[in-house]
Amino acid sequence: WQKTNNYGEIDDAGGHFPQTHDDNGQATPTPVTDGRHVYVLFGTGVAACYDLDGNRQWATFLEKSTNGWGHSASPVLSGNTLIVHILSVTGLDSGSGKVKWRTPASPQWGSPALANIGGQDVVITPHSGDVIRVSDGKKLASGIARLDYATPVVDGDIVYFIEKIARKVRLRPDGDGVKAETLWTTKIKGSRHYSSAVVENGLIYAASREGHFAVIDDETGDVLLQEPLNISGGKNIVYSSLVLGGKYLYIGSVDGVTVVLEPGRAFQEVARNTIEGYRSSPVFDGDRMYVRTFRHLYCIGN
Q1: 67: which residues sit within 8 A by CB, 6+ positions away?
Q2: Is the dihedral of CA 38, 47, 138, 144 positive or negative?
Q3: Residues 39 and 31 sit within 8 Å (Cβ to Cβ)
Q4: pLDDT along the chain (302 residues), means of 10
Q5: Cβ contact 186:216 at 8 Å
Q6: Structural domain range at position 40
Q7: Residues 180 and 166 placed together within one structural domain of the fold
Q8: Which of 8, 127, 142, 252 is a Cys-bridge partner for 240, taking CB atoms 3.0 to 4.6 Å apart?
Q9: Any bridge partners for residue 244, and if so which?
Q10: Is residue 190 left, alpha or beta, with left meaning phi > 0 and alpha meaning psi from -120 to 50?
Q11: Which of 72, 104, 136 finishes a domain?
């Protein structure tokens, strides 16, 4: 099925589309699902919910991004709360689309990340480093670290903010708030990291927009490896987040080259495959890989 949201038919969504960039557009955010419904967010400021047969359950206009490069942060789902970060962080009732709470938090392009700290479900914003309680939108901590473009990676009470200046932060309950402890800070090559990192078996893998690949020791923060991926495409080569599929790492690029690496402390390239260019992140389901390119949706596998 295919459905269209008519912007002008949604309450309060009149006027012009927000400004964006050709690399971004108005449909960059990745949908999220609970297995029964699919929740989508557009750069126009509209969030919507569909059932698996394509029937729209609700559509809500929230607010328009004021960033000239457009909006890209994806929604996240925690229980029955859909969380969207455009200008403020907004918690929506996933069943009705009604706003439950709004919390001011400086926006950028990376998506928020979910965590559970001391039994409380929280959402962590990348740019302002805010820790916000999902149940009521209360801000429990602020400024714990910062990412301009990518999404934090969460492992229990540890949050990784991996870009040019990379940080590992531990979060702990502190009265009615949360206390952040920076465990290490390190620096890796690259001017920007659009791509979110992978943390696996004591190592952290990252790639900058220019195609600089880095491996960081999770325990110490030491940079173990920095290697060029040697992909053409100019300055903005890697937008796709790194993905671990089976036993390999996959790094996509705007010219369609996907570099396949063996995880570890050494640079071990397994394969280099080419399809159409893409900025999306591949998704794995069993032995199949799905990739949304500029023109097509690919399914690669058996």
Answers
A1: 19, 107, 108, 109
A2: positive
A3: yes
A4: 78 77 83 97 93 95 84 94 96 98 92 97 97 98 96 98 98 96 98 97 97 98 97 88 96 96 98 95 95 95 85
A5: yes
A6: 1-104
A7: yes
A8: 252
A9: 249
A10: left
A11: 104
